[in-house]
Design a protein that fits this description.
14% strand; 11 helices; alpha/beta; two-stranded antiparallel sheet; 6-stranded parallel beta sheet
């Protein structure tokens, strides 16, 4: 396992620091919504005068795909010059997403719940982080029955800025009394997850291939490891967990 930020021991050798906190992305990493995020984004664009199939529509939707994991409010401020239009589009997105998941369209990725339980049994705190607003995040957690499954859930409004900034990770470190950012593992499916982990100083930044971006994209953004799915995380972290 390629880990940065190793510390010394009595024998003079280096070893990775203990992991005390796992910051896990939601859509694409621990849960799947079968494309409902993009459907809600498309509806927001349509209702704000962007013609489906037009070059502008495809370009804007492409930007939304490239910035998966970012605060959705921030994405809309990039897509629309007028702040009021951006705010309105974000509200349409949230309402559309609520409608789209009301039928149970969000579900846990196979092995996600078991991995969260494994992390907590290993003595680690768990934070679920998202680019959604607080209301939408709560809707997702409630629909899964995951309220209380993690030690903390965070959205960009809780931290000041969303990904790719490190704010949510650092907020989790403070809120959960973690002593050292090198004791953090960040897990996500998008380049923004990797960038936020690197910028926060996490020693393990793990990409998963169950969501938005390819292994090459994740590694280019700073992933220390890439695994097929969240369910592969325990095997990856097992040597560290044995020392917790």
């Amino acid at each position: 396992m390629d880990i940065v930020g190793s510390t010394g021991n009595r024998d003079g050798h280096t070893r990775p620091p203990r992991l005390r906190l796992a910051v896990l992305d939601m859509v694409g990493t621990t849960i799947t919504d079968d494309g409902r995020t993009e459907q809600a984004m498309a509806r927001a664009l349509l209702e704000h005068g962007v013609e489906p199939g037009s070059a502008r529509f495809e370009s804007m939707l492409g930007y939304a795909r490239d910035t998966m994991g970012y605060s959705k409010a921030t994405v809309f401020t990039h897509l629309f010059d007028d702040p009021r239009t951006a705010e309105s589009a974000n509200k349409v997105f949230e309402l559309a997403y609520d409608e789209l998941i009301a039928d149970g369209g969000v579900r846990a990725i196979q092995g996600a719940a078991e991995t969260i339980a494994w992390l907590r049994d290993a003595g680690m705190k768990v934070c679920l982080a998202t680019g959604f607003g607080r209301h939408t995040q709560n809707m997702v957690l409630e629909s899964l029955g995951w309220m209380g499954e993690a030690d903390l859930s965070l959205c960009p409004d809780d931290a000041g800025r969303g990904r790719p900034y490190p704010d949510m990770i650092l907020t989790a470190v403070l809120a959960l009394d973690v002593d050292d950012v090198r004791e953090v593992v960040v897990v996500g499916d998008a380049s923004s997850d990797m960038l936020s982990g690197v910028r926060a100083g996490a020693s393990a930044v793990v990409g998963v291939l169950s969501g938005s971006h390819s292994e090459a994209t994740l590694r280019a953004a700073g992933a220390t490891d890439v695994v097929p799915s969240i369910r592969n995380l325990p095997a990856l972290l097992e040597p560290r967990a044995a020392r917790l």
